[in-house]
Amino acid sequence: MDLNLTQDELAFRDELRVWLEANVPKDWDEWRDESLESRFDYLRRWQRKLYDGGWAGISWPKDYGGRGASLMQQVIFWQEMARAGAPPMANVLGLGLVGPTLIAFGTDAQKKRYLEKILSAEEIWCQGFSEPNAGSDLASLRSDAKLDGGHYIVNGQKVWNSYGWAADWCELVVRTDAAAPKHKGLTVLLVDMKSPGVEVRPLRQMTGETEFNELFFRDVRVPVENIVGKVNHGWDVAIGTLMHERGTFGAGLQVTYKRTIDRLIELSRTVERNKRPAAQDPLIRQKLAQCYAEIEIMRLNQMRAFSRISATGIPGPEGSILKIFWSELNQRMQQMAQEMLGPFGQLTGSNGHAIDKGMWSYGYLRSRGNTIEAGTSEIQRNIIGHFVLGLPKSY
Ligand SMILES: Cc1cc2nc3c(=O)[nH]c(=O)nc-3n(C[C@H](O)[C@H](O)[C@H](O)COP(=O)(O)OP(=O)(O)OC[C@H]3O[C@@H](n4cnc5c(N)ncnc54)[C@H](O)[C@@H]3O)c2cc1C
User: Fold this and answer.
1) Which residues approach ligand 1 with their CB closer than 6 A?
2) Residue 272 annotated to the active site
């Protein structure tokens, strides 16, 4: 692929750069101490501003509120967000998973109804896939939906549901044919989280936050027009969503990682190690440079994946390579931060001595989940082994 930007791409980049310089809020770091809900509201307002400026959904169709630009311009967008030190957007799963799934599998009516409100953050989305006995082996899920006139009646339980507490809508996978082989009888439904019978119960993580939840569905009525794709063919739709989660979703993470490494490099000049600035410690210098290089590798790999998706429209199994890379890279970077910052790095926000209001202890603890969410590293390696390298199945 050609990594040089075309004239159009350069014009796009320059226009965006000017807009970001004028509009990126400067106080996001000061919000670290605030509650999960307040921080979410802040990011929601920021996303709304991007949307009003015409910068949400760069590669989404114009008819549905997007900019209709190329995937490469989408990549430039994330790079410029990182360069400007911009906060991330609020509707993470709507933008990264549900929107692309609806663009690929949804009806025109569904695209009209949902896409623009995802971009404006007017409606927040969550993903109801995992169950207590169905994570890596998602197809063994048991939540079911039975047809009753113009509605499906949904019963079951989901778990580890990120943003469930904030969500207006859920992309839910349910079993609609119990007699069919396990991959065949599944259907994807769009469920209004305010429907009677939906209960959201927070789960407390080791970070202390309740970022994700258990969801309970008791006789929840979902209109048949909320089916995505075909009845009993939900596996194809769910895999489409997961391919985006593993393939394109990580693009936005580069913004966060770049901010993290820039801040670590800055801190290395003042934090002491063996009575001199950490930046003068050969081991720390090696590790900082290694992380910096890996973030650049992540960016280039993403560009390669995006250019391949431009040709086919759908991410392929090689998205698993990106997923392993970003998740394990963040764990290495957070581990390195702890080594460099020493015990002060472990203090939390409420303690006056904590560095950066405790973001390093939070970052370290939160990174442990990276190699589990969106499919564990073992599952990604199985996918790469089987679908990319053509090796026999592991089971
Ligand atoms: C931070 C976070 C956010 C999440 N958000 C969501 C969300 O929004 N929506 C949602 O639906 N889910 C979400 N999840 C759930 C996530 O998708 C599952 O946790 C994940 O798929 C693993 O499933 P499990 O927890 O049931 O583990 P299991 O599937 O029980 O796996 C247990 C262990 O066995 C290993 N293993 C299992 N099968 C194999 C195999 N065939 N070969 C080799 N090793 C294997 C796994 O790698 C793992 O180490 C989230 C998880 C986390 C940590």
Assistant:
1) 126-130, 135-136, 160-162, 212, 369, 372-373, 375-376, 378-379, 382, 394-395
2) no
82 closest CA partner among 254, 250, 294: 254
pLDDT value of residue 149: 94
Task: Match 């969801």 to its residue by tokens.
Answer: 215
Single out the residue of 164, 224, 150 nearest to residue 199, CA to CA.
164
Tokens of 34: 């605030």
In angstroms, the CA 349 to CA 189 distance is 40
Closest CA to 380 of 321, 340, 292: 321
Catalytic residue among 245, 266, 296, 328: 245
Span 323-353, pLDDT tens digits: 999 999 999 999 999 999 999 999 987 667 8
**Probe residue for ligand 1, chosen from 36, 91, 98, 136 as the CB with the greatest number of ligand atoms within 8 Å:** 136
Distance of CA 121 to the CA centre of its chain: 15
Strand partners, 127: 171
Mean predicted confidence (pLDDT) in 301-324: 80
| Pairing outcome for strands 169-175 and 125-128 | parallel
pLDDT of residue 31: 80
Secondary structure string (H, E, C) spanning the chain: CCCCCCHHHHHHHHHHHHHHHHHCCCCHHHHHHCCHHHHHHHHHHHHHHHHHCCCCCCCCCHHHCCCCCCHHHHHHHHHHHHHCCCCCCCCHHHHHHHHHHHHHHCCHHHHHHHHHHHHCCCCCEEEECCECCECCCHHHCCCEEEEECCEEEEEEEEEEEECCCCCCEEEEEEECCCCCCCCCCEEEEEEECCCCCEEEEEECCCCCCCCEEEEEEEEEEEEHHHEECCCCEHHHHHHHHHHHHHHCHHHHHHHHHHHHHHHHHHHHCCCEECCEEHHHCHHHHHHHHHHHHHHHHHHHHHHHHHHHHHHHCCCCCCHHHHHHHHHHHHHHHHHHHHHHHHHHHHCCCCCCCCHHHHHHHHHHHHHHHHHCCCCCHHHHHHHHHHHHCCCCCCC
